[in-house]
Amino acid sequence: MPNKTFFHLTDEKRRRIVDAALQEFAAHSFNEASINRIIKHADIPKGSFYQYFKNKEDLYLYFLDEVSKEFTDPLLHEKEMYPDATFFEVIQHVNREVLKLKNIKPEYIEARMRMELDNNEFIRNIRKKSTEKYIKLIERDKARGIIKPDADAEILVDMIASFSLNERYRNKSGVEEYLRKLDIVLNIIKEGVAVAGDT
Amino acid sequence: MPNKTFFHLTDEKRRRIVDAALQEFAAHSFNEASINRIIKHADIPKGSFYQYFKNKEDLYLYFLDEVSKEFTDPLLHEKEMYPDATFFEVIQHVNREVLKLKNIKPEYIEARMRMELDNNEFIRNIRKKSTEKYIKLIERDKARGIIKPDADAEILVDMIASFSLNERYRNKSGVEEYLRKLDIVLNIIKEGVAVAGDT
Amino acid sequence: MPNKTFFHLTDEKRRRIVDAALQEFAAHSFNEASINRIIKHADIPKGSFYQYFKNKEDLYLYFLDEVSKEFTDPLLHEKEMYPDATFFEVIQHVNREVLKLKNIKPEYIEARMRMELDNNEFIRNIRKKSTEKYIKLIERDKARGIIKPDADAEILVDMIASFSLNERYRNKSGVEEYLRKLDIVLNIIKEGVAVAGDT
Amino acid sequence: MPNKTFFHLTDEKRRRIVDAALQEFAAHSFNEASINRIIKHADIPKGSFYQYFKNKEDLYLYFLDEVSKEFTDPLLHEKEMYPDATFFEVIQHVNREVLKLKNIKPEYIEARMRMELDNNEFIRNIRKKSTEKYIKLIERDKARGIIKPDADAEILVDMIASFSLNERYRNKSGVEEYLRKLDIVLNIIKEGVAVAGDT
DNA sequence: TATGAATGAGGATTCATTCAT
DNA sequence: CATGAATGAATCCTCATTCAT
Question: First CA to last CA across chain B, in angstroms?
Answer without folding.
Answer: 54
